[in-house]
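=== RUN LOG ===
request id: a7f3
mode: sequence -> structure
chains: 1
length: 345
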Amino acid sequence: MDEAKRKKILGIWFIIGVGMLLGQIILGGITRLTGSGLSITEWKAILGFLPPLNEQDWNLAFIKYQQFDQFKLVNTSMTIAEFKWIFFWEWFHRLWARLIALAAIIPLIYFIIKKIVFKEDIIKIVIAILLGAVAGTVGWIMVQSGLKENTVLVNPVNLMSHILVATIIVGYVLRVGIEYLYPKQESAYDKKNRIWFAVLIVLVFIQIGLGALVAGSKAALVCTTFPLMNGHYYPSEINFSIADNYEFSVKLMIQFLHRNLAYFIFFFVLFLFFKTRNVAAQYQFHRSRWLLLGMVLLQVILGILTLIYSDGKVPVILGVCHQLGAFLLLIFSIEAHYFIKYRAK
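=== RESULT ===
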């Protein structure tokens, strides 16, 4: 098999992996927004892919859930039919993680047998698999943080850690995939502009982390007005010196930071879009420029709609789309950073 075909096979495999990871991010968002994350109270690495198979198993799973404070303090009126609904999303989220692992390991074994992967390829693949294992471990630590006494939600910092590990995995798998599909070219290019896109990647990464803190702490619900926050640019209610107001102030500050970084990213993308309009690169780069512009506009709209329609709870569809939009913004940023090195023919 010639080198170009071999790399194309591996590149397509990695891009399929990115698609599966985005599917997991969608499922994770649904799981969080439907309050499903604590419905499965134990981790079974092997048999966990099987849901309860009969009414006895369902009753046992429901009894286990009833032992924890999310049921005792929030869902005391929940029926077993409602429990089955939230159980489904958490189960599906975990099942999809297992399918991603199989989609990595089974093809890897085949590629080794067929001599499609070499030593340097295996190292890259193993890194992706290990990152996936880290994500699973952090995910279980996150779930356990919500099963403690007097707790009805997972720890926001643990949620942020889980999502940021997922962000690193998506970025890594994408970067390796496009490198296989479009091998590096050694040529002169505008390194300063490429650095700008590296800055954008870092900004989006930080914003995803802030978004996870907003989600985990329910900070979106403390202020649902736009463009001002309860009539002010900087919320007047923020006062960390008052003990009874401290938690509320923290949530307002998190939302304030998330909003303002969103504004900065929006104008930063506009700046990059016009700054690089005459860059002598192939169409992949300019395609990424336009995708970035469109995505940042859509993401701002989704953020505003998610905020103003959050009446007591975040709408599932808007919340999931907003979370997915952040990852698409990251993907297009990484693509632009990579493809700016391509010279126009």
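=== NOTES ===
Residues 80-113 form the longest helix (34 residues).
The chain has two domains: 1-183, 188-345.
=== END ===
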